[in-house]
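Archive entry. Fields below.
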Amino acid sequence: EVQLVESGGGLVQPGRSLRLSCVASRFTFDDYAMHWVRQAPGKGLEWVAGISWNSGSIGYADSVKGRFTISRDNAKNSLYLQMNSLTAEDTALYYCAKSSGTYYYHNYYIDVWGKGTTVSVSS
Amino acid sequence: EVVLTQSPGTLSLSPGERATLSCRASQRVSNGFLAWHQQRPGQPPRLLIYGASNRATGIPDRFSGSGSGTDFTLTISRLEPEDFAVYYCQQYGYSPLTFGGGTKVEI
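PREDICTED_STRUCTURE:
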């Protein structure tokens, strides 16, 4: 069974940075695009960023553009999210999610979700 | 950005009843690139339907999706106790990918 395990969440002060990681297993990681999706406490799902298999196609939600950077290391079966200039509005459970496709982060559906890692931004 | 509006916000039903959930897009969804995800309390989402009407692997046939253009529907033919959850539609044809606000199906 495909597995996605997120880590790196925690409590951070406003304006600081945090880096999330997601380790993938039981599938060929570099065959698929990947995503980060977040869910604020008691709220719905919000797509954050997506990346194609070779990092050639990358996209961000407007709410994080210029502050967050998605990246991947196919040799390590790992996906990352570098989050800078954090605000209270970034407080959420962050899910790593696998795409069904390869070449673009859009035009393919999300087919597997990790369990998430919690980010809390507060002074 | 494609805005997805789900209705109703909450659906109160009993086991064995039929549930009909709606998702309306602010513009035509490219190639029917619409998915439905289920989220049970305390759990991550799970893919139910992709391409508007295709069931994901392992999803029971009581779940069905339909629609095209801007109007989509998820139907649960006979509710089982484990189906009481929140359901999200999501479009993946345009960037940014977007989700609807969710429909909670409660007892």
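CURATOR_NOTE: Chain A has a mean pLDDT of 97.
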